[in-house]
Design goal:
Number of strands: 2
Strand content: under 5%
Distance between the termini: 88 Å
Order of helices and strands: EHHEHHHHH
Shape: rod-shaped
Helix content: over 70%
Structural class: mainly alpha
Number of helices: 7
Strand order of the largest sheet: 1-2
Length: 175
């Protein structure tokens, strides 16, 4: 003999409003419906409670992933990390901060040389009137400054890395 209750009584067992339970029941597949009709327009309480517990347990655990899936994702991340480390060791991958620092130093060197260019040229141009001679003198000094910039050695921290890479390449060629 099973206990039968009205829908509102069954809803009150859950702590939700009847309307909320009705909406949940409406969205469930027919074999999982919460309200199973009994005699006299009432509904089976035992079936309701079993299906309600099943609904709540499934809803709580649907976000928990399968352990195999989590392990597979973890392994994929480890593989990607190892590939990045190998690429860095081979010199195919470099740190962004190192590149920023090196280019900042290069930009600073260029800026300093270009700023000093005006103070180098100004005394030479003071008494000149011929625009062709002035243009030639400016062109010569700009080219000289750009050549000096191009011949500036790498900073010690960048030169050490490139020398290490070159010596590794030479070792590979000898083998």
């Amino acid at each position: 003999m099973s206990v039968e209750m009205t829908k509102k009584d069954l809803a009150s067992l859950t702590g939700y409003t009847y309307r909320r339970i009705y909406d949940i029941d409406r969205d469930l597949p027919s074999d999982k419906k919460l309200f199973v009709a009994g005699d006299g327009g009432k509904y089976d309480a035992a079936t309701f409670v079993q299906r309600w517990v099943d609904f709540k347990v499934n809803r709580e655990t649907e976000d928990i992933e399968d352990l195999d899936v989590v392990k597979a994702r973890h392994e994929a991340v480890k593989i990607e990390k190892t590939e990045l480390e190998v690429a860095r060791m081979r010199g195919a991958l470099i740190d962004v901060q190192d590149v920023k620092r090196l280019w900042g130093d290069i930009a600073n060197t260029v800026m300093q040389n270009m700023i000093h260019l005006a103070s180098k040229i100004a005394p030479m141009l003071r008494m000149m009137d011929n625009t062709e001679v002035i243009a030639n003198l400016i062109d010569t000094e700009v080219r000289k400054t750009l050549t000096d910039i191009a011949n500036t050695p790498l900073p010690s921290y960048a030169a050490d890395e490139s020398e290490t890479e070159e010596s590794e390449e030479e070792d590979d060629e000898e083998v």
